[in-house]
Amino acid sequence: MIKFLDLEKINNRFRDEIDSRIKTVLDKGWYLQGTENEIFSSNFAKFCGTKYCVGVANGLDALTLIIKAHGFGAGDEIIVPSNTYIATILSISANGCTPVLVEPSLDTYNIDVDKIEEKITSKTKAIMVVHLYGQAVQMKKVWELARKYNLKVFEDCAQAHGAIYEGKRVGNLSDAAAFSFYPGKNLGCFGDGGAVVTDNEEIFKKVKALANYGSDYKYHFIYKGVNSRLDEIHAAVLDVKLKYLDSDNARRREIAKYYCENIRNEAIILPKSYSELSHVYHVFAVRTANRDKLVDYLKSKDIQTLIHYPIPPHKQEAYKEWNTLSYPISESIHSTILSVPISPVLTDDEVDYVVKSLNEYQG
């Protein structure tokens, strides 16, 4: 069986280092907001090219706290792609803001930057981009619109750790950015985890306080905050794995390039990348007209697959007020998209077998 993602194999590569760092945490007996968080936050900020990083409990909290720290709320609109994981949109709703959906590009699956301006109104406060599947959004037009209309720009980097746009890593392309460290991410911990990165000291301090019950120092509360903190064990694990992220991403790109050059099947549409470093291939997402048939076929070949994602946000029951709306590009993607195995621990033989199997598929 070729697993979609073999987390045991991925993490066992660093087992000795991880065991050592976890032992350090246990020996100290300090489990929250300690030196491991300080070390990782400093190293991850440097990796992203930002001045500040705050570890939080998960990626959704990171997004929610960014909006909250900017003071946006009821009556404010935030532009967001219609093709994304629902957490992006939930973070907007959680702050009482109104999500304004923009269709994606069928080439990149990211927000279509040429369709953003028509959705901007007097109520628009920010544009939230999502670097979906691991590919950085082409940000030039987004920056231009932000300057023209005096808007903030936020990034959802949950799937794109290390992706690069015009010489800058994601996380350093906006006013503030959110990361998830869910175990299956390119940089994942051993449970839920997340972070906010920014160059803005005021936003950094506000997010840090908001995530700690609204406290700026012990038993003193300046905001109505929440409890959203990255624990010391997760921070230690992430700091070990961070050193290997670039090489892991390079292996993902190598596999993706091989897939793109060798999968030759008219029934399968391959992903596109606009530059070599823009994509870190969190997933390798193909499209096909008869997805269920391809899923069953690959299952018969002992190849695991996943769907990212089967139902678009505007068709979810949670947003029933949108259920009658039409976003045809998003709907097309969600009905045809399928992710096949890609990870830094896939062997060349496994990669060849995936290619051979896809080429033999009769759609």
Automatic annotation (TrEMBL):
Superkingdom to which the source organism belongs: Bacteria
PTM-bearing positions, type N6-(pyridoxal phosphate)lysine: K185
Example GO biological process: polysaccharide biosynthetic process
Active site: K185 (proton acceptor)
Keyword Nuclease in annotation: no
Keywords: Pyridoxal phosphate
Pfam families per UniProt: DegT_DnrJ_EryC1
Family annotation (SUPFAM superfamilies): PLP-dependent transferases
Any one GO molecular-function label of the UniProt entry: transaminase activity
Family: Belongs to the DegT/DnrJ/EryC1 family.
Name of the protein: dTDP-4-amino-4,6-dideoxygalactose transaminase
Source species: Succinivibrio dextrinosolvens
